[in-house]
Design brief:
By secondary structure, this protein is an alpha+beta fold. The chain contains five helices and eight strands. A five-stranded antiparallel sheet has the order 1-2-3-6-7, with helices on both faces. Strands 4-5-8 form a three-stranded antiparallel sheet. Bound molecules: zinc ion (ZN).
Length: 198
């Protein structure tokens, strides 16, 4: 079973290696991406995950399709879009304007804090099909890009966060079983007081 590694694991502190672009589409890389999507789907509050978080030191991250619903691009009444895959991402541009934003991490349970992030980010990355593309983002997605690319450089949000506090979600306290994806997930995520985890 795929496990999300926690902050004490040294793999989270290493610089992840670039994926050989010839390997994109091979069963080996497809399996890693599938494992990342599975691990992410099991986390109610998860919006993105980087490969080192499942113990794989490669430059890949996945953004949940839930993000499009959370940012209002896709109505919550419609099915959740597919997750997006970003391989060998490179930051092309970060807005000078920054904002202190709430942040949490699937590998730093259950700490939350505020991180100063650029409000807009442009990255270039290769998708699952091997196509190199440029992605411009603002708000939550821009924050996700910065958080995930930090992971690939061995940086955790707690390295730069202020006002860090521990907030144990009710389902952990009560040890309730987690439900699968869908609209319930969005509702449950909102139950975290809007705290999203990457
Ligand atoms: Zn994280």
């Amino acid at each position: 079973m795929v496990k999300i590694v926690q902050k004490e694991n040294p793999i989270l502190r290493d610089e992840a290696r670039a994926v050989d672009e010839k390997e994109i589409g091979t069963p080996k890389i497809a399996k890693i991406i599938a494992d990342m999507k599975i691990a992410l789907s099991r986390e109610d509050d998860g919006v993105a995950i980087a490969a080192p978080q499942i113990g794989v030191p490669l430059r890949i991250f996945v953004v949940s399709g839930k993000v499009a619903q959370l940012t209002g691009q896709v109505p919550e009444t419609e099915p959740t879009p597919e997750d997006s895959v970003f391989i060998n991402p490179v930051v092309k541009k970060l807005s000078r304007e920054k904002k202190l934003t709430d942040e949490g991490c699937l590998s730093v349970r259950y700490l939350y804090g505020k991180v100063r992030r650029s409000i807009k980010a442009t990255i270039e990355a290769t998708d699952e099909t091997g196509k190199r593309r440029v992605f411009g983002a603002s708000g939550l997605l821009a924050q996700i890009f910065q958080h995930e690319i930090d992971h690939l450089g061995g940086v955790l949000f707690t390295d730069k966060a202020v006002d860090v506090e521990e907030i144990i979600p009710p389902h952990v306290v009560k040890r309730q079983p987690l439900k699968a994806s869908g609209h319930t997930t969005i509702a449950r995520l909102r139950g975290y007081g809007g705290r999203m985890t990457k």
